[in-house]
Design brief:
- By secondary structure, the chain is an alpha/beta fold.
- It has a single domain (2-222), classed as 3-Layer(aba) Sandwich (Rossmann fold), CATH 3.40.50.
- Helices cover 36% and strands 29% of the residues.
- Strands 6-7-8-3-9-10 form a six-stranded mixed beta sheet, with helices on both faces. The chain has a four-stranded antiparallel beta sheet with strand order 2-1-4-5, with helices on one face.
- Helix 3 (100-110) packs across helix 4 (115-128) and helix 3 packs parallel to helix 5 (144-156).
- It starts with a strand and ends with a strand.
- The structure holds adenosine-5'-diphosphate (ADP) and magnesium ion (MG).
- Residues 11, 13, 18, 20, 38, 40-46 line the site of adenosine-5'-diphosphate.
């Protein structure tokens, strides 16, 4: 369902070249929970941005659900993302002055789904993810763990086959992280969504059925 082949991404910063993703290849099957595990600066976010088509590689291929992302042109990219990929990124997407239900329903608006149907589905997903008592809370009134649940609800509302999450437990205490990990497992079992999660949290690696150890832009080993 996801094929990454010979991927390279180099940044140039003050005349220094940083090989953020340096000859990376791997395959992921539908329904996998994959942890991309590595320390800060190892290139995890860069790799996730490439897979999510938020950024373009210097060279290499990314094939999602049989489609080479190189062939998806600018104007079609947003629609391609919405139908294939859900994002849980730290500074991406969530709007603090909107309620949980409004945040989760928003992607459906871009797909032209009517308001009542948007709200019905947002409510359903939030209930599934354990937030039925916080539907009308603004994000500012929610805990870190609850905000991350809103982020996951929002990522899956358009029924993508693949969800990319960038260090989703990074700001959470270990108990809250464990609860979120359990939620990910449940979503994975119920909907067969493929998860690719960057982390340096062993809690996330413990739920992964594939771990890609990442160091200096390279895969050190796969498990
Ligand atoms: N936009 C950018 N411009 C220049 N260098 C960058 C940029 N984004 C990331 N880098 C560098 O690429 C390397 C990998 O960064 P990143 O992918 O954010 O790692 P991680 O998510 O594992 O912490 C780091 O050395 C970082 O400084
Ligand atoms: Mg990062």
């Amino acid at each position: 369902m996801l094929e990454v082949k010979d991927l390279y991404k180099t940044y140039k910063y003050a005349n220094v070249k940083i090989h953020a993703v340096n000859d990376v290849s791997f395959n992921i099957r539908t329904g996998d929970i994959v942890s991309i595990f590595g320390r800060s600066g190892s290139g995890k976010t860069t790799l996730l941005n490439l897979i999510g088509t938020l950024d373009r590689p210097d060279s290499g291929e990314i094939i999602i659900n049989g489609k080479n992302t190189r062939e998806v042109s600018g104007s079609k990219l947003a629609a391609f993302r919405r139908s294939n990929i859900g994002f849980v990124f730290q500074y991406f997407n969530l709007i603090p002055y909107l309620t949980a239900i409004e945040n989760v329903a928003l992607p459906l608006k871009f797909d032209g789904v009517a308001r009542s149907e948007r709200n019905r589905r947002a409510k359903e997903v939030l209930e599934e993810i354990g937030l039925s008592k916080r539907l009308d809370f603004k994000l500012a009134g929610l805990s870190g763990g609850q905000v991350q649940r809103v982020a996951f609800a929002r990522a899956i509302i358009a029924k993508p086959r693949i969800v990319l999450a960038d260090e989703p437990t990074g700001q959470l205490d270990s108990k809250t992280a464990e609860n979120l990990a359990e939620t990910i497992v449940n979503l994975n079992k119920k909907s067969n969504i493929t998860f690719i999660i960057t982390t340096h949290d062993p809690v996330i690696s413990s739920i992964a059925n594939k771990i890609i150890y990442f160091e200096d832009g390279k895969i050190q080993k796969k498990e």
